[in-house]
Amino acid sequence: MTEIADNIAEKIISLRVKTAMTQQDLADRLSVSRSLVSLWELGKRLPDDASISKMAALFDVEESYFYDEIPKNGAAYDEALLIEKEIKEFTGPHGEDGQGTRRNVKLLEDFLEGTGRRDREIFLSRYLDGKSCKEIGYIFLMSEVGVRVKLLRIRKKLRNFIEKEGGRI
Hints:
This protein is mainly α. It has 9 helices and no strands. α2 packs across α3, α5 crosses α6 and α8 crosses α9. It is elongated. The two termini are about 25 Å apart.
């Protein structure tokens, strides 16, 4: 999935093993299925905000422990550059006449149009307005960690959309 998902997976495994818990034990304590815990540990799914909070309390760590490798300085700008790079990889370089730029903007607009209102507003708050995850969390009544997870999921959807639609525009 991503480096962040792999990082979170390693931390879940490490904490679970240190406390001599099985996947089923952890699942029972979090009120989720064992298969979901397995997907987290494989890095194929990200735990939701509530699960992160419960795991942090269960293992006596801060919620931020699970995300300590997320860039902190200029992160919105860096993430926006990464999104732009990913779009260019699938749609080709910018043409001298600006065709590439228009095509990439159209692709992003199409993606955002098909995204739910709340996700779209969170995405634009971060990458257009440059708001911090903490500020976005305050606006949308979410924790900072919850905003980070939401943005990761939106970016994954964008990558999937680009792969599917990128060549058609």
